[in-house]
Structures are given as C-alpha cells and as structure tokens.
Amino acid sequence: MWISPAYAQDAAGGTASVIMQLLPLILIFAVFYFLLIRPQQKKMKEHREMLAKLKRNDKVVTGGGIVGTIAKVRDDSDEIEVEIAPNVRITVLRGTISSVVQPPGAANDSKPADAAKA
What we know:
- This protein is of the alpha+beta class.
- It has helices spanning about 5-10, 15-50, 115; strands at about 60, 65-75, 80-85, 90-95, 95-100.
C-alpha cells in the first residue's frame, strides 16, 4: 500500500535505459575532446617543437612581452640569453618564450610584385 510506483515498476529493458542515460555524457565528452582537448594538445606539441628548434639570431617574444634576439642557446640547461638592446643581455627560461618572430620577407617565398611585372 505504501510502496512507491517507481519500485513497483518492472525492471525490463534495463540495458537499453542505461545506454540511453550514458549517451548524453558520452556525447558531451566527445564534443569537449574534439573542440577543446585535442586542439590544445596539438598547440602544446607545436610549442614544444618550436622551443626545441630555437637557435642563435632568432627574434623571439617572451611571455612577459619582451622582444629580443637570441644571443646564446645553452643545450645543457633551460636558460637562453636574449639580447633586448645593444649590449644588454638577459637570461630567460626556454619555457617563457612564447613565439618566434619572423622577418617580414622570410614568410614570402615568391618573387616581389615589381620583379614579376618586369
């Protein structure tokens, strides 16, 4: 008499209902993986590769916004000497370098527009 209708129901179709309850969670995880986790892992991998390829005379930007040219790369440690002004060198950690700045002409492999017209 005092039994709730939920307890009185038959437990038939239990497997299908469990899958239907887990389906939204699986879909949410898939969306998070493809929209957030995977691109972030790819970006981290590219950043690690960029840090490994640093060499002398590369123009870099640190995490603090300091722009300078690499004067010395120490392979045995995590420190890099960056020249931020003539005869002014600072030592920064490799991980604080956020990007390598390319000179304007380096990214353009094609001939200049004036040379193409001639």
